[in-house]
């Protein structure tokens, strides 16, 4: 099945304030290029509304290497998910790699990924983190809890530690592009499309320069989006809470009636009454919040706004 034609590998690189890392990234990639079986590289950098000189760096790289380097620059920050989508849409290569600009994704692994696709017949070769060393304990805890929860309630398996860094065939990329949803959760989308996937193990490493743009709360809200995008179980939860409190209320009613018939009805217990009313009120708001989150997502989808706006493309 060996194809003699020269293959093109497109690299999709979302960039948000990566002025320091970009030249290092490009250099590192050019170094692994000879090990990529003569493949032609096509870089697609996506400047996601950076506030530093990322765009200037990209223009410079593009002028230096117009054959290989392309970039898209957004009109503002639309988020990594939007940047990935824009990059994937622009690619023309037979294979497409998704990589972070900060060299946390080791470029050397591309060689092994390519072998996985061309020699072993996989459609996707991804990377999976084997340790969480160097990560704050609280972050690991929430991360583990998130994966445990989402896999309990979603029919799309979302494996812990899987990174976005991956090499895919054109067929897989086309499948991903056929999901034009506004609320994009790549971990779910990559898994949802299926295909034969292999994971290489990945050791945590620090970014070469700059700093991460993910705060704890940003990650937290991203996880909530993932749950809402890939499961409707929380909606069912609202019904369960309703049924459960109905049953409790029914038992309580029987208890109160029986007690009244046997002991009469001394007036007391307003404190318990108040707390029960408050609790039910709280549960109702909680369930309303869940429903609201889904409606909010429907609202965002229904507006059909573009996922990103391009200001400059080369
Ligand atoms: N990124 C982006 N838009 C954003 C945030 C991040 O395009 O709003 C890019 C960023 O430039 C990097 C990748 O997404 O190439 C991963 O971001 P980061 O390194 O900050 O995340 P971490 O590796 O800490 O998860
Ligand atoms: Mg990073």
Automatic annotation (TrEMBL):
<protein>
    <submittedName>
        <fullName>Glycosyltransferase</fullName>
    </submittedName>
</protein>
<feature type="domain" description="Glycosyltransferase 2-like">
    <location>
        <begin position="10"/>
        <end position="167"/>
    </location>
</feature>
<dbReference type="Pfam" id="PF00535">
    <property type="entry name" value="Glycos_transf_2"/>
</dbReference>
<keyword id="KW-0328">Glycosyltransferase</keyword>
<dbReference type="InterPro" id="IPR029044">
    <property type="entry name" value="Nucleotide-diphossugar_trans"/>
</dbReference>
<keyword id="KW-0812">Transmembrane</keyword>
<feature type="transmembrane region" description="Helical">
    <location>
        <begin position="235"/>
        <end position="258"/>
    </location>
</feature>
<keyword id="KW-0472">Membrane</keyword>
<keyword id="KW-1133">Transmembrane helix</keyword>
<keyword id="KW-0808">Transferase</keyword>
<dbReference type="GO" id="GO:0005886">
    <property type="term" value="C:plasma membrane"/>
</dbReference>
<feature type="transmembrane region" description="Helical">
    <location>
        <begin position="270"/>
        <end position="291"/>
    </location>
</feature>
<keyword id="KW-1003">Cell membrane</keyword>
<dbReference type="InterPro" id="IPR001173">
    <property type="entry name" value="Glyco_trans_2-like"/>
</dbReference>
<dbReference type="InterPro" id="IPR050256">
    <property type="entry name" value="Glycosyltransferase_2"/>
</dbReference>
<comment type="similarity">
    <text>Belongs to the glycosyltransferase 2 family. GtrB subfamily.</text>
</comment>
<dbReference type="GO" id="GO:0016757">
    <property type="term" value="F:glycosyltransferase activity"/>
</dbReference>
